[in-house]
Each structure stands twice: as structure tokens, then as C-alpha cells.
């Protein structure tokens, strides 16, 4: 069975309800705090594993208590393997301030993700074999990401890239990727276009198949079969955090199972609709039982 190797970030989300989002110079008193595992790499790996894929997850972390917390949380997930790669930096942390209307403000520290060297990224890819898939996001450095993509291709694996967060020029990677998933803002940053036009441009720039996600508007997809729109699964949205990660995790899992792109996108949107219907990021990801029912 082909496997999915997710190489990305993992850390802790510290979520603090606040009476309003802070202004310049303001000190805010939070109404509490909750901690959860987080990071786009971690979320996408967990969703793909819960969706039934054989997932190998590799992520840089610090040598600290937060890394142990991440490790403990991942033991409860159906991942085939977890490689937390110790770096001389603190484990990544995101502070999410959430106002009563659901609006949020996020501060992210990504020193561990930034610290992963290209050589360490290559070591993490050693299990990859012909027919496997590598899934990456934008949290690692550009050199580490490029090294990983090239090595995966050299091993006969396909590559799926989620362009979030967009911190550096991703255009050189596009021709090396079988699938690229960007939200509309990220797609516009690369192509200066939106929606279907952006998807078509990403495909023309080399992505095997480009998907531009459009929130409640669903997504646009451009590939060898032309340009297609897929409406979102209707949902009562409470908090969209984690929607993109759910989409990517299910899309990768479904493609690995040999489903056609259109079917995989439809499954990804059904799963993402669950995530947006409840608060939190990690806490809102669909469970394995929910995914089994959704994807049946
Ligand atoms: P986030 O950063 O909030 O996780 P994103 O910006 O990466 O998300 P979006 O385009 O907002 O990505 O959403 C990804 C997918 O999630 C959409 O293509 C859609 O299928 C689903 N989705 C998002 N918002 C909604 C919504 N309000 N109702 C139904 N589905 C939604």
C-alpha cells in the first residue's frame, strides 16, 4: 500500500478568549486559556491518518516540554510513524486570541520549523518509496522544502504542496508538484489572479493539478482535464480554522487510495464542512468515525 509522508511543522496552539482584539499598546486580560497540539503539518497528517491513509509524519520540534506534549498527543492518533526531529530552538507555538464574535488574531513562533536544515529534511525522507506521496506546507524554510521535493521526486514519489503559510517564493516548486492547493489569497500572491483564473495560471506554471480553495465558495481546480468548479458542502460555519488542513489531509488520503481528483476534492470538501461547523483548529478536525461516515 502506498504511503503518505507529511513533512511539516508541529507545535502547540495556546487559545485565549479575549473581550476584543487588541489595539496598539493595549494590555488585554484573557478569559482563560486552552492548549492543543497544532501546526499545519501536524493537522494535515492527523486528518489523513484518520481518513485511513498510512501516514508517516516527520516534524522539527525543540528539546523541551512542549515537544513532549506534542509527542504524547500524537500517540493517540492512528499514524503509521512519528519522527519528531529535535532542533536547537523552542518548539513552535501559536497564540490565538479569539474575540466573542469569533474573529481572531494569531501570533506564531516558528523557530523549530525554520531550523530544519536541508540535510535533515533529506534524512526524514529516507522511508519514501516509489509510488508514495510527500505532502508539504510552507512552514519549513525554502531550501529545506526544495531539497525535500527534489529528493521525493528522485525516489519516485509524487508531491503535493499546500502553499500555506506563504513566506517565500513558491513558484520554482510548482513544476515539481503533482498537486498544489492554495487558498485564494495565496493563489493571488503567486499569480496576481483569483479563483478559476488563478487555478489555471498555477497549472500553466507547472503544477500537475492546481486547486484554489474559496472558503464557502468551494474551490476551483485546473489540470489536464481543464478547469472545473466544485461548490462547497453547505455548512453552518462557526470557526473556519483548520478547514484548509482538513481539505489537504483528506485530498491526499483520497488520492493515495487511487480516487480521481474530482472525487477526492468532493470528499475533502465534505470533511472541511465538518471542521468549519465547530470551534478550534485541532479540536475541530473530523474524527476517524466521522470521516468514515462522511467518506463512505
Ligand atoms: P483556513 O486557513 O481557515 O484553515 P484556508 O484559507 O486554507 O482555510 P478556505 O478556502 O477558507 O481555506 O477553505 C478550505 C475549504 O474548506 C473550502 O474549499 C471549503 O471546502 C471548506 N470551507 C471553508 N469555509 C467554508 C464554509 N463557510 N462553508 C462550507 N465549507 C467551507
Automatic annotation (TrEMBL):
The keyword Metal-binding applies. It catalyses: D-ribose + ATP = D-ribose 5-phosphate + ADP + H(+). K(+) binds at residues 239, 241, 275, 278, 280, 284. Its EC number is 2.7.1.15. Activated by a monovalent cation that binds near, but not in, the active site. The most likely occupant of the site in vivo is potassium. Ion binding induces a conformational change that may alter substrate affinity. Keywords: ATP-binding, Carbohydrate metabolism, Cytoplasm, Kinase, Magnesium, Metal-binding, Nucleotide-binding, Potassium, Transferase. Transmembrane segments: none annotated. It is an enzyme of class 2 (transferase). It comes from the Bacteria. It holds the Pfam family PfkB. Requires a divalent cation, most likely magnesium in vivo, as an electrophilic catalyst to aid phosphoryl group transfer. It is the chelate of the metal and the nucleotide that is the actual substrate. Pathway: Carbohydrate metabolism; D-ribose degradation; D-ribose 5-phosphate from beta-D-ribopyranose: step 2/2. It is found in: Cytoplasm. One of its GO terms (molecular function) is kinase activity. Residues 1-287 form the Carbohydrate kinase PfkB domain. ATP binds at residues 183, 213-218, 244-245. InterPro entries: PfkB_dom, Ribo/fructo_kinase, Ribokinase, Ribokinase-like. The active site is at residue 245. Homodimer. Catalyzes the phosphorylation of ribose at O-5 in a reaction requiring ATP and magnesium. The resulting D-ribose-5-phosphate can then be used either for sythesis of nucleotides, histidine, and tryptophan, or as a component of the pentose phosphate pathway. Belongs to the carbohydrate kinase PfkB family. Ribokinase subfamily. This is Ribokinase. It comes from Roseomonas haemaphysalidis. The lineage of its organism: Bacteria, Pseudomonadati, Pseudomonadota, Alphaproteobacteria, Acetobacterales.
Amino acid at each position: 500500500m502506498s504511503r503518505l509522508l507529511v513533512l511539516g511543522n508541529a507545535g502547540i496552539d495556546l487559545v485565549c478568549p479575549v473581550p476584543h482584539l487588541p489595539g496598539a499598546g493595549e494590555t488585554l486580560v484573557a478569559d482563560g486559556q486552552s492548549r492543543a497540539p497544532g501546526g499545519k503539518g501536524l493537522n494535515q497528517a492527523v486528518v489523513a491518518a484518520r481518513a485511513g491513509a498510512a501516514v508517516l509524519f516527520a516534524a522539527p520540534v525543540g528539546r523541551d516540554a512542549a515537544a513532549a506534549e506534542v509527542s504524547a498527543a500524537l500517540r493517540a492518533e492512528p499514524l503509521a510513524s512519528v519522527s519528531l526531529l529535535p532542533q536547537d530552538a523552542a518548539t513552535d507555538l501559536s497564540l490565538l486570541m479569539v474575540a466573542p464574535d469569533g474573529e481572531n488574531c494569531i501570533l506564531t513562533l516558528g523557530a523549530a520549523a525554520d531550523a530544519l536544515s536541508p540535510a535533515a529534511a533529506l534524512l526524514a525522507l529516507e522511508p519514501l518509496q516509489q509510488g508514495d506521496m510527500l505532502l508539504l506546507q510552507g512552514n519549513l524554510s525554502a531550501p529545506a522544502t526544495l531539497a525535500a521535493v527534489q529528493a521525493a521526486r528522485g525516489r519516485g514519489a509524487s508531491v503535493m504542496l499546500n502553499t500555506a503559510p506563504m513566506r517565500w517564493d513558491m513558484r520554482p516548486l510548482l513544476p515539481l508538484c503533482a498537486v498544489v492547493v492554495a487558498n485564494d489569497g495565496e493563489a493571488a500572491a503567486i499569480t496576481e489572479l483569483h479563483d478559476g483564473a488563478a487555478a489555471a495560471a498555477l497549472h500553466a506554471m507547472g503544477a500537475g493539478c492546481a486547486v484554489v480553495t474559496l472558503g464557502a465558495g468551494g474551490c476551483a481546480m485546473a489540470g489536464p482535464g481543464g478547469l472545473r468548479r466544485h461548490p462547497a458542502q453547505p455548512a453552518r460555519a462557526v470557526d473556519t480554522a483548520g478547514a484548509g488542513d482538513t481539505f489537504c489531509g483528506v485530498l491526499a488520503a483520497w488520492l493515495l487510495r487511487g480516487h480521481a481528483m474530482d472525487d477526492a476534492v468532493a470528499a475533502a470538501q465534505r470533511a472541511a464542512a465538518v471542521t468549519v461547523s465547530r470551534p478550534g483548529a485541532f479540536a475541530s478536525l473530523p474524527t476517524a468515525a466521522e470521516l468514515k461516515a462522511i467518506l463512505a
